[in-house]
Amino acid sequence: MERGVHDRGGRSTDEPIDRSEHTLEDWEVLTDALVGALARCGLMNVDELRRGIESMPGDEYERASYYERWLFSMETILSEKGVLAAGELDRRAAG
């Protein structure tokens, strides 16, 4: 079975793991809070969040930051459930 891009376990690499602390940007804090709010409202759970992240195309996954992956997942899951219309977030952000 072929592993997805998210499945890093057991892959050898020469790249060091970045363990440095960093300050979260405002949008990252808000993204984290939104995931919590969606969970408390019963709209999305951690398993769905993970599934949404794992559904990202490999090239997008590689380019995305941690919280960008969360945003992709939230939009995917909420669109699947009919809470968001396809492309709704892009339209609202542009408008």
The largest pleated sheet is described as: none
Instruction: Detail the poorly predicted runs.
Output: none
In the CATH scheme, what's the topology name? Cyclin A, domain 1
Strand content: under 5%
- CATH homology superfamily name: Nitrile hydratase, beta subunit
Briefly, what CATH class?
Mainly Alpha
Mean pLDDT, to the nearest integer, reads: 87
Descriptive report:
The protein is mainly alpha-helical and 95 residues long. It has a single domain, classed as Cyclin A, domain 1 (Orthogonal Bundle), CATH 1.10.472. Helix content is 55%, strand content 0%. The protein has 5 helices and no strands. It is globular.
In short:
It is built from five helices and no strands.
Task: Describe the secondary-structure layout.
Blueprint: H1 26-40, H2 46-54, H3 58-63, H4 66-80, H5 88-94
Helix pairs in contact: 1-4, 2-4
Distinctive features:
0% strand, 95 residues, mainly alpha, Cyclin A, domain 1
